[in-house]
């Protein structure tokens, strides 16, 4: 009986740990919070749109368009070669927060069916994203 319980427990741990590592980022994600602050609805809400087949990402900072590349390896997430247009916008503080979060990104975790959380290397939450 003890062996059966151990086997069942090991199977559950394996099941949950393998599911936790699988984050499907493909598609468009609205940035709903940055640095613990809820993003207020604006004319152009910030978002990230991931193309997992090509490893490319584009989106909007709330002021400017952005494009670049990303790598997702299990839970590890990183961005590279990010570029933005350079127009002034109504909320440059939001843009700075979004860009800082992207530059500090180290991992991602599925929070629910349509939500993911993005973290820095120290495990601090940087952003919450909602699937559109």
TrEMBL record:
Keywords: Signal. The keyword NADP does not apply. The keyword Chaperone does not apply. InterPro entries: DUF306_Meta_HslJ (IPR005184), HslJ-like_sf (IPR038670), Hsp_HslJ-like (IPR053147). Residues 26-129 form the DUF306 domain. Pfam families: META. Residues 1-22 form the signal peptide. This is META domain-containing protein. It comes from Candidatus Cryptobacteroides faecipullorum.
